[in-house]
Amino acid sequence: MQMNRGLAFFTFLVFLFLLGPLLIISVTSFEGGSVLKFPPEHLSFKWYLNIFDVQMFISTFKTSIIVSLMGNLFALVLGIPAAYALSRFDFKGKKLLDAVFISPILIPGIVLGFSFLRYIVGTYQLPIYTALFIGHTIIMLPFIIRVISSSLSNFDFSIEEAAESLGASKVKTFFIVVLPNIKSGILAAVMIAFLESFNNVDISVFMTGPGISTFPIQMLTYVENYFDPTIAAISVLLMVITAFFMFMVERLMGLSYFTKR
Protein backbone atom coordinates (compact mmCIF):
# COMPACT_ATOMS: atom_id res chain seq x y z
CA MET A 1 0.00 0.00 0.00
CA GLN A 2 2.86 2.32 0.93
CA MET A 3 4.60 1.54 -2.39
CA ASN A 4 1.39 2.26 -4.33
CA ARG A 5 1.13 5.70 -2.75
CA GLY A 6 4.76 6.39 -3.55
CA LEU A 7 4.26 5.31 -7.15
CA ALA A 8 1.11 7.43 -7.45
CA PHE A 9 2.98 10.46 -6.08
CA PHE A 10 5.87 9.89 -8.47
CA THR A 11 3.41 9.57 -11.38
CA PHE A 12 1.76 12.81 -10.29
CA LEU A 13 5.15 14.58 -10.33
CA VAL A 14 5.88 13.26 -13.83
CA PHE A 15 2.53 14.51 -15.14
CA LEU A 16 3.06 17.84 -13.37
CA PHE A 17 6.49 18.17 -15.00
CA LEU A 18 5.08 17.39 -18.43
CA LEU A 19 1.81 19.30 -18.29
CA GLY A 20 2.71 22.12 -15.89
CA PRO A 21 4.32 24.39 -18.54
CA LEU A 22 1.38 23.82 -20.89
CA LEU A 23 -1.05 24.76 -18.11
CA ILE A 24 0.92 27.93 -17.30
CA ILE A 25 1.01 28.96 -20.97
CA SER A 26 -2.74 28.34 -21.25
CA VAL A 27 -3.51 30.52 -18.22
CA THR A 28 -1.17 33.35 -19.24
CA SER A 29 -2.78 33.51 -22.68
CA PHE A 30 -5.78 35.17 -21.00
CA GLU A 31 -3.72 37.98 -19.43
CA GLY A 32 -5.48 41.29 -20.01
CA GLY A 33 -2.36 43.46 -19.71
CA SER A 34 0.28 44.12 -22.31
CA VAL A 35 2.97 41.93 -20.70
CA LEU A 36 3.01 38.17 -20.23
CA LYS A 37 2.39 37.42 -16.53
CA PHE A 38 1.59 34.45 -14.34
CA PRO A 39 -0.83 34.46 -12.70
CA PRO A 40 -2.68 36.97 -14.93
CA GLU A 41 -3.89 40.15 -13.24
CA HIS A 42 -6.87 40.57 -15.59
CA LEU A 43 -8.64 38.07 -17.81
CA SER A 44 -9.22 38.86 -21.46
CA PHE A 45 -9.51 37.29 -24.90
CA LYS A 46 -7.93 40.27 -26.65
CA TRP A 47 -4.64 38.49 -27.45
CA TYR A 48 -6.57 35.77 -29.26
CA LEU A 49 -8.15 38.51 -31.39
CA ASN A 50 -4.73 40.14 -31.84
CA ILE A 51 -3.55 37.05 -33.74
CA PHE A 52 -5.83 38.00 -36.64
CA ASP A 53 -4.66 41.64 -36.58
CA VAL A 54 -1.04 40.72 -37.31
CA GLN A 55 -0.83 40.38 -41.08
CA MET A 56 2.39 38.34 -40.99
CA PHE A 57 0.66 35.65 -38.93
CA ILE A 58 -2.07 35.38 -41.58
CA SER A 59 0.31 35.23 -44.54
CA THR A 60 2.77 32.79 -42.92
CA PHE A 61 -0.12 30.61 -41.76
CA LYS A 62 -1.29 30.32 -45.37
CA THR A 63 2.28 29.53 -46.46
CA SER A 64 2.61 26.79 -43.85
CA ILE A 65 -0.75 25.28 -44.83
CA ILE A 66 0.14 25.28 -48.56
CA VAL A 67 3.62 23.83 -47.98
CA SER A 68 2.32 21.15 -45.60
CA LEU A 69 -0.52 20.09 -47.92
CA MET A 70 1.58 20.06 -51.10
CA GLY A 71 4.48 18.35 -49.35
CA ASN A 72 2.03 15.83 -47.93
CA LEU A 73 0.71 15.08 -51.40
CA PHE A 74 4.21 14.51 -52.81
CA ALA A 75 5.17 12.42 -49.78
CA LEU A 76 2.07 10.26 -50.31
CA VAL A 77 2.90 9.72 -53.99
CA LEU A 78 6.38 8.54 -53.00
CA GLY A 79 5.55 6.95 -49.67
CA ILE A 80 2.62 4.67 -50.51
CA PRO A 81 4.49 2.64 -53.19
CA ALA A 82 7.58 2.54 -50.95
CA ALA A 83 5.60 1.30 -47.94
CA TYR A 84 3.82 -1.27 -50.11
CA ALA A 85 7.10 -2.60 -51.57
CA LEU A 86 8.75 -2.79 -48.15
CA SER A 87 5.76 -4.63 -46.67
CA ARG A 88 4.89 -6.87 -49.62
CA PHE A 89 8.22 -8.11 -50.94
CA ASP A 90 11.49 -9.49 -49.63
CA PHE A 91 14.48 -8.32 -51.61
CA LYS A 92 18.17 -7.71 -51.18
CA GLY A 93 18.90 -4.39 -49.52
CA LYS A 94 15.41 -4.08 -48.03
CA LYS A 95 16.67 -3.22 -44.53
CA LEU A 96 19.12 -0.69 -45.93
CA LEU A 97 16.39 0.96 -47.99
CA ASP A 98 14.13 1.06 -44.95
CA ALA A 99 16.90 2.73 -42.96
CA VAL A 100 17.40 5.32 -45.71
CA PHE A 101 13.71 6.21 -45.69
CA ILE A 102 13.71 6.59 -41.90
CA SER A 103 16.97 8.56 -41.77
CA PRO A 104 15.41 12.08 -42.06
CA ILE A 105 13.96 11.70 -38.57
CA LEU A 106 17.19 10.30 -37.14
CA ILE A 107 19.52 13.01 -38.46
CA PRO A 108 19.43 16.26 -36.42
CA GLY A 109 17.13 18.70 -38.19
CA ILE A 110 19.65 21.52 -38.19
CA VAL A 111 22.20 19.28 -39.93
CA LEU A 112 19.62 18.18 -42.47
CA GLY A 113 18.49 21.76 -43.09
CA PHE A 114 22.03 23.01 -43.63
CA SER A 115 22.72 20.10 -46.00
CA PHE A 116 19.63 20.98 -48.06
CA LEU A 117 20.67 24.61 -48.20
CA ARG A 118 24.29 23.89 -49.11
CA TYR A 119 23.94 21.03 -51.56
CA ILE A 120 20.42 21.33 -53.04
CA VAL A 121 19.14 24.90 -52.79
CA GLY A 122 22.52 26.52 -53.27
CA THR A 123 23.68 24.24 -56.06
CA TYR A 124 20.52 24.37 -58.15
CA GLN A 125 19.43 27.90 -57.18
CA LEU A 126 15.91 26.72 -56.32
CA PRO A 127 13.09 29.19 -55.64
CA ILE A 128 12.06 29.44 -51.98
CA TYR A 129 8.71 27.69 -52.41
CA THR A 130 10.31 24.81 -54.34
CA ALA A 131 12.97 24.44 -51.64
CA LEU A 132 10.27 24.39 -48.94
CA PHE A 133 8.25 21.74 -50.82
CA ILE A 134 11.30 19.52 -51.24
CA GLY A 135 12.48 19.94 -47.66
CA HIS A 136 9.07 19.29 -46.14
CA THR A 137 8.39 16.33 -48.44
CA ILE A 138 11.59 14.70 -47.23
CA ILE A 139 10.83 15.21 -43.54
CA MET A 140 7.26 13.91 -43.98
CA LEU A 141 8.27 10.84 -45.96
CA PRO A 142 9.44 8.74 -42.96
CA PHE A 143 6.13 9.32 -41.15
CA ILE A 144 4.11 8.42 -44.24
CA ILE A 145 6.09 5.21 -44.85
CA ARG A 146 6.18 4.19 -41.19
CA VAL A 147 2.46 4.60 -40.51
CA ILE A 148 1.29 3.07 -43.80
CA SER A 149 3.71 0.14 -43.31
CA SER A 150 2.15 -0.42 -39.89
CA SER A 151 -1.28 -0.47 -41.53
CA LEU A 152 -0.08 -2.90 -44.24
CA SER A 153 1.36 -5.22 -41.59
CA ASN A 154 -2.22 -6.14 -40.66
CA PHE A 155 -3.40 -6.48 -44.24
CA ASP A 156 -3.99 -10.04 -45.48
CA PHE A 157 -2.18 -10.19 -48.82
CA SER A 158 -4.01 -13.43 -49.71
CA ILE A 159 -6.98 -11.16 -50.58
CA GLU A 160 -4.80 -9.45 -53.16
CA GLU A 161 -3.72 -12.81 -54.57
CA ALA A 162 -7.36 -13.92 -54.76
CA ALA A 163 -8.29 -10.81 -56.78
CA GLU A 164 -5.41 -11.45 -59.19
CA SER A 165 -6.41 -15.11 -59.56
CA LEU A 166 -9.88 -13.89 -60.64
CA GLY A 167 -8.37 -11.86 -63.46
CA ALA A 168 -7.72 -8.43 -61.97
CA SER A 169 -4.45 -6.78 -62.95
CA LYS A 170 -1.86 -5.90 -60.30
CA VAL A 171 -2.54 -2.19 -60.68
CA LYS A 172 -6.31 -2.60 -60.49
CA THR A 173 -5.97 -4.92 -57.49
CA PHE A 174 -3.81 -2.34 -55.73
CA PHE A 175 -6.37 0.43 -56.21
CA ILE A 176 -9.60 -1.50 -55.56
CA VAL A 177 -8.40 -3.98 -52.94
CA VAL A 178 -5.28 -2.77 -51.13
CA LEU A 179 -5.86 0.99 -50.88
CA PRO A 180 -9.43 0.79 -49.50
CA ASN A 181 -8.25 -1.58 -46.78
CA ILE A 182 -5.49 0.75 -45.58
CA LYS A 183 -7.33 4.07 -45.96
CA SER A 184 -7.44 4.63 -42.18
CA GLY A 185 -3.67 4.19 -42.06
CA ILE A 186 -3.23 6.64 -44.93
CA LEU A 187 -5.41 9.24 -43.17
CA ALA A 188 -3.46 8.78 -39.94
CA ALA A 189 -0.17 9.13 -41.84
CA VAL A 190 -1.39 12.33 -43.50
CA MET A 191 -2.36 13.87 -40.15
CA ILE A 192 0.90 12.99 -38.40
CA ALA A 193 3.01 14.15 -41.35
CA PHE A 194 0.99 17.37 -41.57
CA LEU A 195 1.67 18.16 -37.89
CA GLU A 196 5.37 17.42 -38.32
CA SER A 197 5.57 19.71 -41.34
CA PHE A 198 3.42 22.53 -39.96
CA ASN A 199 5.38 22.73 -36.68
CA ASN A 200 8.81 22.34 -38.28
CA VAL A 201 11.39 25.03 -37.59
CA ASP A 202 14.87 23.55 -38.02
CA ILE A 203 14.45 22.69 -41.71
CA SER A 204 12.25 25.66 -42.63
CA VAL A 205 14.66 28.22 -41.22
CA PHE A 206 17.20 27.22 -43.88
CA MET A 207 14.66 27.03 -46.70
CA THR A 208 12.89 30.37 -46.24
CA GLY A 209 14.08 33.72 -47.52
CA PRO A 210 13.14 37.40 -47.90
CA GLY A 211 9.36 37.87 -47.97
CA ILE A 212 8.51 34.20 -47.47
CA SER A 213 8.41 32.55 -44.06
CA THR A 214 6.47 29.87 -42.21
CA PHE A 215 4.16 30.22 -39.22
CA PRO A 216 6.52 28.78 -36.53
CA ILE A 217 9.39 30.99 -37.72
CA GLN A 218 7.11 34.02 -37.63
CA MET A 219 6.25 33.12 -34.02
CA LEU A 220 9.96 33.12 -33.13
CA THR A 221 10.44 36.47 -34.85
CA TYR A 222 7.48 37.94 -32.95
CA VAL A 223 8.83 36.73 -29.59
CA GLU A 224 12.14 38.49 -30.28
CA ASN A 225 10.35 41.83 -30.60
CA TYR A 226 7.28 41.62 -28.36
CA PHE A 227 6.57 40.19 -24.91
CA ASP A 228 2.79 40.26 -24.96
CA PRO A 229 0.62 37.09 -24.56
CA THR A 230 -0.08 36.72 -28.32
CA ILE A 231 2.32 33.81 -28.68
CA ALA A 232 0.77 32.15 -25.62
CA ALA A 233 -2.65 32.45 -27.29
CA ILE A 234 -1.30 30.93 -30.52
CA SER A 235 0.31 28.13 -28.53
CA VAL A 236 -3.03 27.26 -26.94
CA LEU A 237 -4.72 27.12 -30.34
CA LEU A 238 -1.92 24.93 -31.73
CA MET A 239 -2.22 22.59 -28.73
CA VAL A 240 -5.96 22.26 -29.35
CA ILE A 241 -5.40 21.52 -33.06
CA THR A 242 -2.66 18.98 -32.25
CA ALA A 243 -4.84 17.28 -29.65
CA PHE A 244 -7.66 17.03 -32.21
CA PHE A 245 -5.35 15.49 -34.82
CA MET A 246 -3.93 12.97 -32.35
CA PHE A 247 -7.47 12.10 -31.21
CA MET A 248 -8.38 11.39 -34.84
CA VAL A 249 -5.24 9.27 -35.30
CA GLU A 250 -6.13 7.31 -32.16
CA ARG A 251 -9.66 6.78 -33.47
CA LEU A 252 -8.41 5.70 -36.91
CA MET A 253 -5.57 3.38 -35.95
CA GLY A 254 -4.80 3.56 -32.24
CA LEU A 255 -1.49 5.01 -31.09
CA SER A 256 -0.32 1.54 -30.03
CA TYR A 257 0.13 0.80 -33.76
CA PHE A 258 3.32 2.84 -33.83
CA THR A 259 5.04 0.75 -31.15
CA LYS A 260 4.56 -2.57 -32.93
CA ARG A 261 7.29 -2.18 -35.54
Model description:
This protein has 261 residues and is an all-alpha fold. The chain has helices at 2-28, 46-51, 55-88, 94-106, 109-124, 128-152, 157-165, 170-181, 183-198, 204-207, 215-225, 230-252. The longest helix has 34 residues, at 55-88. The model has no long low-confidence stretch (mean pLDDT 87).
User: Hey, roughly how much beta strand do the residues contain?
Assistant: under 5%
SSE ordering: HHHHHHHHHHHH
* Low-pLDDT regions: none
Terminal CA distance: 36 Å
Number of helices: 12
Fraction of residues in H or I helices: over 70%
Task: Please write out the topology.
Layout: H1 2-28, H2 46-51, H3 55-88, H4 94-106, H5 109-124, H6 128-152, H7 157-165, H8 170-181, H9 183-198, H10 204-207, H11 215-225, H12 230-252
Helix pairs in contact: 1-12, 3-6, 3-9, 3-11, 4-6, 6-9, 7-8, 9-12
Properties at a glance:
single chain; 261 residues; mainly alpha; 12 helices; 75% helix
Q: Brief overview, please?
A:
With 261 residues, this protein is mainly alpha-helical. Helix content is 75%, strand content 0%.
